[in-house]
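hiii so um. not sure if this is the right channel but i have a protein structure encoded as tokens and i wanna go backwards to a sequence. like what aa goes where. can anyone help
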């Protein structure tokens, strides 16, 4: 099996991008795995500190903030990154940064999300740090049962996002296979969402979709004046 030279994880031979770090594989594949461990500030060696390397992410919403801000942590509470945007910015825009140094400070942009102005439906475009478009997430205008988003790449539907968005329980599927799940932890002082990436998908698409869904829900609640 080949390995991605960007993050060192094992990937399938036919993959066009690394499902763990999101980097294209055409020039980033090696048959020798690169090291993925790094020093933890508490002294032990750990792996998976990168936001794009994690498969289990806890997304925590900052309370009492003028900005719509989320912190990303692993299951032990170690900070992986953060994402935020301005409540009053039209159209909405979010920037996601990784926290790959020992102090947990954001050191580089992972992706950014731009909302579309004057759209009949919610639509958001995802871009990598260099400005290359990763995909476009749209909310379906009408469904008889429930709500649904879909993500397009090159104007072709690539991923569905569906479930109970009001209860913050939803899934993401590619070709009918669930690749990620989101679950809200209700016993908390802050809104917390468990994001599990369980399939072959660019993690930036999962992170971006989760931010967009929660942003749309926040906007809906604010407009209705209730939860």
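sure thing!! here u go:
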């Amino acid at each position: 099996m080949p390995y991605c030279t960007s993050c060192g994880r094992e990937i399938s031979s036919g993959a066009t991008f690394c499902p763990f770090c999101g980097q294209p594989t055409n020039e980033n594949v090696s048959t020798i795995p690169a090291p993925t461990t790094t020093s933890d500030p508490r002294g032990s060696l750990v792996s998976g500190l990168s936001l794009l390397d994690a498969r289990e992410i806890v997304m925590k919403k900052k309370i009492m903030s003028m900005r719509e801000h989320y912190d990303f942590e692993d299951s032990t509470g170690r900070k992986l990154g953060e994402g935020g945007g301005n409540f009053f910015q039209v159209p909405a825009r979010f920037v996601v940064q990784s926290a790959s140094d020992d102090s947990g400070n954001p050191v580089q942009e992972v992706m950014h999300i731009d909302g579309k102005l004057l759209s009949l439906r919610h639509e958001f475009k995802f871009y990598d740090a260099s400005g290359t478009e990763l995909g476009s997430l749209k909310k379906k205008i009408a469904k008889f049962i429930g709500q649904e988003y879909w993500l397009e790449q090159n104007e072709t539907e690539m991923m569905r996002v569906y479930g109970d968005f009001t209860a913050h329980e939803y899934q993401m599927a590619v070709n009918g296979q669930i690749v990620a799940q989101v679950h809200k932890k209700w016993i908390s002082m802050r809104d917390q969402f468990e994001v599990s990436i369980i399939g072959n998908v660019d993690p930036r698409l999962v992170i971006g979709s989760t931010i967009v869904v929660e942003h749309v829900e926040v906007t809906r609640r604010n407009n209705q004046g209730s939860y």
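oh and Residues 41-224 form a domain with the Porin fold (CATH 2.40.160.200).
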